[in-house]
Amino acid sequence: MGRNEDGGWGAMTPQAAAEFLRSGRLPERSFSDTLRELYPGEDLQERLTACFARGEDALGVESASRKVRNWLSGRHAPTDREDIFRAAFALGLTEGQAGILLGRCTDCGIHYRDGRDVIYAWFLRTGRSFEEAREFYASLPKPEKPAAAPNASGASHITHELQACFQRVRNTRELRECYIAKLPLFGSLHLRAYAYFDKYMSVLTSPSGDEQDYSLEAVTELYLGMNMPMGRDRSGYTAAQKLIKHGWPNATAIKMIKARERDVPRKLLLILYVVTENVLDTGYTESDEAYISPEERFEDHWWTLNAILSDCGMPTLDPRDPTDWLVLYSLRADSDSMSERMSAVIKNLYGE
Q1: Tens of pLDDT along 95-131?
Q2: Are residues 169 and 214 in the same domain?
Q3: Which ranges of the chain does DSSP label H, i.e. alpha helix?
Q4: Which residue from 33, 31, 29 is spatially nearest to 105, judged by alpha carbons?
Q5: Residues 198, 313: one domain?
Q6: Are residues 247 and 167 in the same domain?
Q7: How far apart are alpha carbons 52 and 66 in whole angstroms?
Q8: Of 141, 213, 225, 307, whose CB neighbour count within 10 A is largest?
């Protein structure tokens, strides 16, 4: 289901949306699908197996073959970024394609404040091998863990500046110099995603714009629960139900993110966009006008949310992903709010 079919989203009741998700009719995009889209060659399995069967940490032909077969059959998907980069090198993917592959598996594409990511990206861009990239990265000093994370709202431009800097590098000598010069700016947490998180949470914790009115626990309970059942028991759930429930935010996770002890997950940004309807100030927006149709309003939210995700280095909305499908359904809200629309689907989806 694509963007131009938003009439289907508008006409579908929350009960019908929940049944559609539960039924398994959504053609979910697997890691295997993504691999085949990026590399349509008939030797996909052979190239991946050969790559993982050799090298310093070689699995051996039998183990490598089993790993790749599990990927291509849809039984498993990699979560280790090293494995994903290695697959990108094996298939001769571009830097952009590697970012897509990373994003589909780990929530985020190439992170230009991560030392390994920028080195591997440069070696991909210049057509070098995975072995060369890993050896070069191993020879570099590693950043020290900062005592405190930088202020995300004021430093969210750092990622883009680093990306631009490394894209100007012409050879390994310049790459080493650039890396060492920028070493103090490296970090594993995503500043731009945190900047959005901080703005959205400020809207929810201080709805009047004055002093903080709600605790993080209260915000989680009032706004982010959305009828999602608590607890870890997922017995009897369909694949879509498991995927939507997995990683749903709770108060503990929100506190850790606020304290910069954990990164901002993509799912949380999506939920915060729906809950706040991206209303970050009281300024005029044309989408609030009565003459704007629900379809036009949906289109505006589609592009705005994709722009936010892209700005954070995260994959854009994919209607074949159950959580993204639910978000897109919620964006099509008309008389009710987006959060009410999402909550209604979740209530019907899990029978609560």
Answers
A1: 999 999 999 888 889 998 899 999 999 999 999 999 9
A2: no
A3: 6-11, 14-23, 31-38, 44-52, 61-73, 81-90, 95-106, 115-125, 130-138, 152-155, 158-167, 172-181, 191-205, 216-219, 239-245, 251-258, 266-276, 294-311, 322-331, 338-350
A4: 31
A5: yes
A6: no
A7: 11
A8: 225
Nearest to 31 by CA among 72, 81, 90: 72
Contacts 24+ apart (CB under 8 A), 92-98: 92/39, 93/38, 93/39, 93/124, 94/124, 94/125, 95/121, 95/124, 95/125, 97/38, 98/124
Same domain, 179 and 195: no
pTM of the model: 0.86
Looking at residue 223, the DSSP 8-state letter turns out to be: I
Residue 21: partners with Cβ closer than 8 Å, 6 or more residues away: 238, 240, 241, 244, 322, 325, 326, 345, 349
| Whether residue 161 sits in one domain with residue 298 | no
Tell me the per-residue pLDDT of 257-307, one tens digit each, with 9 for 90 and over. 999 899 999 999 999 999 999 886 555 555 555 667 888 889 999 999 999
Q: Are residues 83 and 23 in the same domain?
A: no
Does residue 8 carry a pLDDT above 60?
Answer: yes
* pLDDT, position 57: 63
Q: How far, in Å, are 21, 155, 217, 279, 312 from residue 179 at the CA level?
A: 46, 19, 40, 38, 21
